[in-house]
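re: ur question from earlier - yeah i can do the single chain one, its not a big deal. heres the input i used so u can compare w yours
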Amino acid sequence: MQLIIQSSPKELQLKEELKTLMCELRSIHMVNEFPKYARTERKINKIKSEVNALAQTRKGAQLKVTLGLNVAFHSLEAVIFIFLIFTFRHDPVVIFPAEWLSPLGSLISFPTPVYGAVSVPLWIMVCRSALRQLASVASHH
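and the output i got, formated as tokens:
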């Protein structure tokens, strides 16, 4: 997201100015030149608040873009799944011997007419669940 929405030129300029003022502040002796030190410190505080305000604006824009992309991706995913389910709802993905799936065979094969088959809707649900678990495990490591 930082590649899409980058810091504004004004924010970059303020950060450079902040670095310069921080170096200047370090060179000022606090006791001997207190008025100059205090003025410089006030300038630094003002610039920090401006930089923070600009950063918050940028982060808000990044959040909007991120949410928009997530909604678009999930909408596209839903459209693809709906298309696959309606197009291939009567075609089995895999056919097992009927006795392997004996108590749940008709549920697993629904809506296909083939007993012992794995249907496209179930296959999609299993794949999504497995990918979520894999992503969860990968994110924890």
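The radius of gyration is 30 Å. not sure if urs matches, ping me
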